[in-house]
Design brief:
179 residues, OB fold (Dihydrolipoamide Acetyltransferase, E2P), 2 domains, six-stranded mixed beta sheet
């Protein structure tokens, strides 16, 4: 019977490899919403799905942060409201997948396009006029949850808009009372 002797360097590599495989298998999964980001401390406060208390998750230089589309992003690009899926061990994240929260715009309707495919909103705080496009997939509803159509928007209505590249995905309307 012959014996195979593994030299010390090869043995250490083998043990290290087994240990990292076991560690990866122990990684926990966490899904939730970003509450806050501390770039200096390399920490993210996450509100887990279905919970109210935040959990602090630490990142390091080895933590991979990507969007759900696979694009690499940096910790400083995360913002409150982003959805996260996190693989972590002892609250140190190894991989974070980010479902980026759509941009939001609030303001008042200035005008509605004649073709009912765009409307102009005067943004709250900046008084900037922004043209917003709508598609057949755009959800438009009142603050009470009643679905309405584009043609029902009128000048002065307050709006909260979730959008990507100025195309609205959701419009919530605080209907202006009739004078």
């Amino acid at each position: 019977m012959s014996r195979i002797r593994i030299g010390l360097p090869v043995g250490l590599i083998l043990i290290s490899s087994i240990a990292s495989t076991v560690e990866a298998a122990r990684a926990e999964q966490l899904a939730g919403i970003v509450s806050s980001v501390d770039v200096e401390a390399k920490k993210i406060a996450v509100t887990p799905t279905g919970k109210q208390l935040n959990i602090d998750v630490t990142v390091n230089d080895k933590t991979e942060i990507v969007t759900s589309a696979g694009k690499k992003i940096e910790l400083k690009e995360l913002k409150a409201g982003d959805g996260l899926g996190i693989a972590h061990t002892a609250n140190l994240a190894s991989k974070i997948v980010v479902n980026v929260k759509p941009a939001e715009l609030t303001g008042h309707v200035k005008s509605v396009g004649a073709n009912l495919k765009t409307f102009v909103v005067t943004e709250t705080g900046t008084n900037t006029d922004i043209t917003v496009a709508v598609t057949s997939d755009t959800s438009i509803a009142t603050t009470a949850g009643k679905k309405i159509e584009m043609k029902e928007l009128k000048k002065g209505d307050g709006v909260g808009i979730s959008h990507v590249n100025s195309v609205a995905s959701k419009v919530v309307v605080n209907v202006k009372p009739i004078d």
